[in-house]
Specification:
- The complex is a heterodimer.
- Chain A is α/β, with parallel strands linked by helices.
- Chain A has two domains: 41-378, Cytochrome-c3 Hydrogenase, chain B, CATH 1.10.645.10; 432-579, Rossmann fold (3-Layer(aba) Sandwich).
- Chain A has helices spanning 41-44, 50-56, 65-79, 86-117, 122-151, 171-196, 241-244, 268-275, 281-290, 294-297, 302-325, 373-394, 401-411, 432-442, 461-471, 487-493, 525-535, 541-545, 565-579; strands at 4-5, 16-23, 26-34, 160-161, 164-165, 209-214, 226-229, 234-236, 264-265, 341-349, 352-361, 364-371, 423-427, 447-450, 477-479, 498-503, 513-517, 547-552.
- Chain A has a five-stranded mixed sheet with strand order 15-14-16-18-17, with helices on both faces. Chain A has a four-stranded mixed sheet with strand order 1-13-2-3, covered by helices on one side.
- In chain A, strand 11 (352-361) and strand 12 form a beta hairpin.
- The longest helix of chain A has 32 residues, at 86-117.
- By secondary structure, chain B is an alpha/beta fold.
- Helices cover 38% and strands 14% of the residues of chain B.
- In chain B, the strands form two sheets. Chain B has a five-stranded parallel sheet with strand order 2-1-3-5-7.
- The longest helix of chain B has 13 residues, at 66-78.
- The chains are: A alpha/beta, B alpha/beta.
- Chains A and B meet through helix 1, helix 2, helix 4 and helix 5 of A and helix 1, helix 2, strand 4, helix 3 and helix 5 of B.
Chain lengths: 581, 260
């Protein structure tokens, strides 16, 4: 077995990686792995006091540290029935806007922009755009300044505590922040123009579901008690599990999430899609000017959405400071006596919906559940990468796949440490399908469905294979024509893998066999027009994820009953492999 | 001219990426840093990374997978000097709180179930000096900007870094704060490594010990002091262990022995 990396950059490092496997003209799969080791944070908070938990969990991520702080504070305060005074809520909002500015400006200018200008890093851009890079650094620094003022440090500040703050910033510090925010406006507006007018490639484009917090009073924002979806549905924060449905996969240390069996996306683009109509003033004008239906279908527009949110933050800060100045007295920390309770807190971190949920018993954490934005996005990242890779492959632009996947992953801003150079493309080894078939068999004894028309030469191969399997005494083999009566089949396929046998034109040598997961077929136009109808027969997503296509390249599909020689050879190989235990 | 620049690599193992991010947070100095040194590898900041010989490797994060062990051994081979940056690299950090391997395995199972990882095998989290020789330790959670810049400068001109070797209390006195322990608030300042400018106490909050134990920390005395103030034995033990990882393993072992 041989694995060939078609990229010149032989090694791929970092704490995350994407591997796209290509067999001839078909992208077999795309897997996003988080190599970052397991940290078991949810487990190590158990037995800690609520205060200690608030110290520990923000260490999950340096970039969203205060979002973690915010979500855990809100969960704990819900669990322990703590009500904070308005000044505390306002200051928390200011701290959050600081994080949005810091994180978004770092991402758009330093991680995403170099791709569009064709540079390896923002530092390299300095040679051409020194002034812009310097102002962008200052903008990022302003975000950091807010974080330091409110939380105590750039990263992992401890000033926000359950019930309030250790210390409030002075009036002078707040006024300085306000005036500085106003000074930045011209550059911020330019930033929005720049990122909304970038030439985003039109691949990949596909529909998805977007989820974010729903701020009350129909405002834009990052905090709320319920989750709003682009389908219009709303989910109370306490029912967050009906959105996330987390599960473990073997190729990553991050858990994956699906809503109603489907991938969904969170982040700036999700917020602008769901709440954009609520933007006012300059941000509202920019939204009206730039938002269009492509934003609903392409993750690349996340960069544009982030720029829009930077503008929102800069417009909100002066108002927020005014509101804060209406409370000259600094309220003391609200103490709590409760020893028992359950609570969930949600906040939209820069990268999207972040959920913390705790159970407190005898004054200590008894259960913790933390769901991060990147974990929720991984499934959609894999899906969009697959769509793009297959489209580029179809267009004969295989050499563009690696860069495009990098672009998509980076647009999601998955986590800074894994957002730079992470794609590896693998050529599948010869007869890759044999190994894959053995892997599928490990999931359970497969069910087979033969597909195709026997009066069109090689197109009959699927039916022929199915009939041969029956002759060999295999049960659970169906023909396409028998399917409508087979409710029983869907029930069985919930636990056992389902394999469609079919002639598929991959533009390969006749007789070539490919085995690939069915859900990827939907992003492959060659296959989907044919097999699409089969999938609408009432299969749920779980069944779809457990079903596969075994395709054989036909030589001819002219009218006739004869099956060509190379396809006959393939039939024999496939039968041997299926029967072989 | 370019030939003379020191070749530097910045690497991240398992952690929050806060130390690498803090380097990017040196907004005013960042362009100069890249001009003064030849940054060969810095995944967070650039994509044209190379894996060649290095003068200095800065390594953040704890070692938590087999892949990271290999990566770390490779870094050590290529680099003349290795600096551990941040508490995870220095002491293992919060993820090294499960000091007992069996305890770690049990908790791993609670989170991931029986699934067998195909991409890399996770291992019991440890600081980097459990696997390689470390030349200097730059502590912090995350590292402090001033201390990082001074260390970086000294390394650039060929001098060893000069780090604070005193507890948070010293800085706290410089900042003229009232002692929180005198107000019966459980503060870990006396046993925690300084360098953060006593930030939490400046904000009227107790030190949580996030930089790990200072050299020659009198842990026994801090423990007794908190016991005398009426705090619960387990509460103190857990509090002291929250961030310190391996840095406090000996003390906890001793404590366990005494209790028996």
């Amino acid at each position: 077995m041989k694995k060939i990396s078609i990229d010149h950059l032989a090694r791929v490092e970092g704490n995350g990686g994407i591997i796209a496997t290509i067999d001839g003209n078909v992208v077999i799969n795309v897997k996003f792995s988080i190599y970052e080791g397991p940290r078991l944070v949810e487990r190590l908070t158990i037995g800690k006091t609520p205060e200690e938990d608030v110290n520990l969990v923000p260490r999950i991520c340096a970039i969203c540290t205060l979002s973690h702080k915010y979500a855990t504070l809100s969960a704990m305060e819900n669990a322990l029935s703590v009500k904070v005074p308005p000044k505390v809520s306002l200051l928390r909002e200011l701290m959050h806007l600081g994080e949005i500015i810091e994180s978004h400006s770092l991402h758009v200018y330093f991680l995403a922009l170099p791709d569009y200008l064709g540079f390896p890093s923002a530092i390299a851009i300095v040679s051409k755009f020194e002034l812009e890079v310097k102002i962008a650094l200052e903008m990022k620094q302003f975000g950091n300044h807010i974080l330091k003022t409110v939380s105590g440090r750039y990263i992992h500040g401890e000033n926000p505590v359950i019930g309030g703050f250790g210390k409030f910033p002075s009036k002078e510090e707040l006024v300085w922040i306000k005036s500085r925010a106003i000074q930045f406006m011209p550059f911020v507006l330019k930033t929005v123009n720049l990122f909304c007018e970038l030439d985003y490639p039109d691949c990949p484009e596909n529909d998805t579901v977007y989820a974010c917090c729903n701020p009350d009073k129909s405002k834009y924002g990052f905090i709320g008690d319920e989750i709003i979806l682009s389908t219009g549905e709303r989910i109370n924060k306490d029912d967050y599990k009906s959105l996330t449905n987390e599960f473990v996969v073997s190729h990553s240390h991050a858990k994956h999430s699906r809503y109603r069996g489907k991938p969904y996306s969170v982040g700036a683009l999700a917020r602008v899609n769901n709440l954009g109509e609520r933007l006012k003033s300059e941000a509202g004008k920019m939204y009206k000017k730039y938002f269009n239906r492509r934003w609903k279908r392409s993750p690349l527009f996340n960069n544009a959405a982030q720029a829009l949110e930077i503008l929102y933050a800069f417009e909100r800060i002066p108002q927020l400071v005014n509101e804060l100045l209406e409370y000259p007295e600094d309220p003391p920390i609200v103490n709590f006596k409760a020893q028992e309770g359950k609570g969930t807190g949600i906040v939209d971190a820069p990268r999207g919906l972040l959920i913390h949920s705790y159970e407190i018993s005898k004054g200590l954490v008894a259960h913790a559940d933390i769901i991060t934005p990147t974990a929720q996005n991984i499934e959609d990242i894999e899906r969009y990468c697959h769509i793009a890779a297959q489209k580029l492959l179809d267009a004969g632009q295989e050499n563009k796949i690696r860069d495009r996947i990098d672009l998509i992953v980076r647009a999601y801003d998955p986590c800074i440490s894994c957002s730079v150079h992470m794609t590896e493309i693998k050529k599948a080894p010869k007869d890759d399908w044999k190994k894959r078939l053995e892997e599928v068999k490990k999931r359970g004894s497969p069910l087979f469905i033969g597909v195709g028309k026997t009066n069109l030469s090689d197109d009959g191969v699927g039916v022929k294979l199915a009939l041969e399997l029956r002759k060999l005494g295999m049960k659970d083999v169906w023909l396409e024509s028998e399917i409508d009566e087979k409710e029983n089949l869907w029930r069985k396929s919930a636990i056992r893998p389902l394999i469609f046998l079919d002639a598929v034109d991959f533009r390969e040598r006749p007789g070539k066999v490919i085995l690939l997961p069915s859900h990827f077929v939907l992003s492959n136009s060659t296959l989907s027009h044919r097999l699409g109808p089969l999938f609408s027969l009432g299969m749920n997503y779980k069944q779809l994820k457990n079903s596969f296509i075994l395709g054989i390249q036909p030589e001819s599909v002219e009218p006739g009953e004869k099956i060509s020689r190379p396809v006959r050879v393939a039939i024999k190989q496939v039968l041997d492999q299926i029967i072989n235990e | 001219m370019k030939k003379d620049k020191l070749k530097i690599g910045i690497y991240e193992l398992t952690g929050c990426a806060g130390d690498a991010l803090l380097i990017l947070d040196c907004e005013k100095e960042l362009i100069d840093i890249f001009k003064a040194a030849d940054i060969q590898s810095f995944l967070m900041a650039k994509s044209d990374n190379r894996d060649g010989e290095l003068d200095v490797a800065l390594v953040e994060g704890s070692v938590s997978t087999e892949r990271e062990i290999e990566e770390l051994l490779d870094i050590r081979k290529r680099a003349k000097t290795v600096v551990a940056i941040g508490i995870c690299a220095c002491f293992g950090g919060i993820q090294a709180a499960f000091l007992d391997k069996k305890d770690w395995e049990r908790n791993f199972k609670e989170v991931y179930g029986d699934i067998e990882m195909t991409h890399t095998k996770p291992v019991h989290s440890k600081p980097i000096d459990a696997h390689i020789k470390v030349d200097y330790y730059l502590p912090g959670c995350p590292i402090d900007k001033e201390q990082f810049l001074s260390t970086f400068n000294r390394i650039l001109i060929g001098n060893p870094p000069e780090l604070y070797r005193f507890p948070v209390c010293v800085e706290c006195k410089w900042n003229e704060n009232d002692c929180l322990l005198n107000k019966d608030i459980p503060c870990l300042g006396p046993v925690t490594r300084g360098g953060c400018s006593s930030v939490c106490i400046n904000y009227n909050l107790p030190c949580v010990g996030c930089w790990g134990p200072v050299e020659e920390a009198n842990l026994t005395s801090e423990f007794q002091l908190l016991l005398d103030k009426g705090f619960d034995y387990d509460f103190i033990r857990k509090k002291m262990a929250n961030f310190s990882g391996r840095g406090i393993a000996n003390f906890l072992g001793k404590l366990k022995g005494e209790k028996k």
